[in-house]
Amino acid sequence: MQFSFWEQNTYFSNIDVLIVGSGIVGLNAALHLKTTQPTLKVIVVERGLLPTGASSKNAGFACFGSPTELLDDLTHHSENEVFGLVERRWKGLQRLRRNLGDVTIDYNRWGGYELFDQSQRELYEQSISQLPYLNKHLQTIVGESDIYRIADEKINTFGFRGISHLIESTAEGQIDTGKMILALTQKVQALGVIILNNLEIQQLHDEGTGITATTDKGILLKARAALVATNGFARQLLPQLQVVPARAQVLITKPIPGLKLKGTFHYDKGYYYFRNIGQRVLFGGGRNLDFKAEETTEMALTDLVQHRLEELLQQVILPDTAFEVEQRWSGIMGMGPAKTTIVQPVSERVSCAVRMGGMGVAIGSLVGEEGAQLILQQL
User: Fold this and answer.
1) Phi, psi torsion values for 11, nearest 5 degrees
2) Stated pTM of the model
């Protein structure tokens, strides 16, 4: 591909920082770099027309973990690790709101709910017995008491069938992730960040004094340092990282007159999740039906998951309510053997900020800043 003198000089010369990935982490890294050192030339490269992974494809939950999720985490990690991660998620959410504003991202703190059916009686009883313990720790993080509380009286209000118990999270909210990414994009571009879409970085070469990136268009990019912020796709560039792609399949209904749902909802240990978007229901999850099949970077849908989502809509979430599915899609999350993020140097001039563990909305702003700080140390 040939460029004019002007194009070469404006876009591709004297790059200080190359960021791979234009999702929530990559854009927040660019934002932090330009607000910290405005003279830096920062370029963000994205393989897709829009962010490819999960940033604007997820459900837009502004959450930090349901009771069953946190209790399960406590069986695998120390108390300090679990609540330290909750604190990072909470701080990340506040950073996102501060950076962009609640109106811009359509943030609504309508609360979140965890659903328990009759087969989960033991799980529910274990959960409520631990609510005082969880609330004590959450109060030190959020600054409010009784974040988790029993909300069985709302089961009929929401119109669920076959649900025995609800636990409410009063501090949970929801956002519009399309508006979030657009606002972040506009904010960093206003600061002078260059964003190139439909350009895939295929390899990064650390040359000690800088990096060279090869691309699918035959363009060579040279910069002083690089940050990989591709989350579930991270191993395509950095195969040594412990990041496993996890596909999340989602559907959304057409508007439903008189919809009773308002808030964010977690079901079956968080493997299913749904929310209202106005009068629509967004519903996603089901990767636990076939974990191996969903460990993929392929943006596709499966009959197994889609049929189960519709079945649960009909039987549990919207019983006796007519609905039509308007749209279906999938996104790719980044998981691993631990729920911790990976923010670290991988060589002298290359760092990474990946593995959001399905909590990118919550933690992505913070992780982007942390990745930017690593890059500043390498320059």
Assistant:
1) -95, -40
2) 0.96
Kindly report, residue by residue over 150-160, the tens digit of the pLDDT: 999 999 999 99
Query: Which residues are bridge partners to 360 per DSSP?
Result: none
Inter-axis angle of helices 24-36 and 360-378, nearest 10 = 40
C-alpha–C-alpha distance, residues 146 and 169, integer Å: 9
Could you tell me the domains of the chain?
A: 5-56+178-241+338-378 (3.50.50.60), 103-173+243-335 (3.30.9.10)
For residue 335, what are the contacts with CB-CB under 8 A and spacing of at least 6?
232, 243, 244, 245, 246, 355, 357, 358
Q: Is 120 helix (H, G, I), strand (E, B) or coil?
A: helix
133-134-137 Cα angle (round to 5): 90
Phi, psi (rounded to 5 degrees) for 346: -110, -15
151 close to 78: Cβ distance less than 8 angstroms: no
pLDDT of 40-63, one tens digit each? 999 999 999 988 888 999 999 999
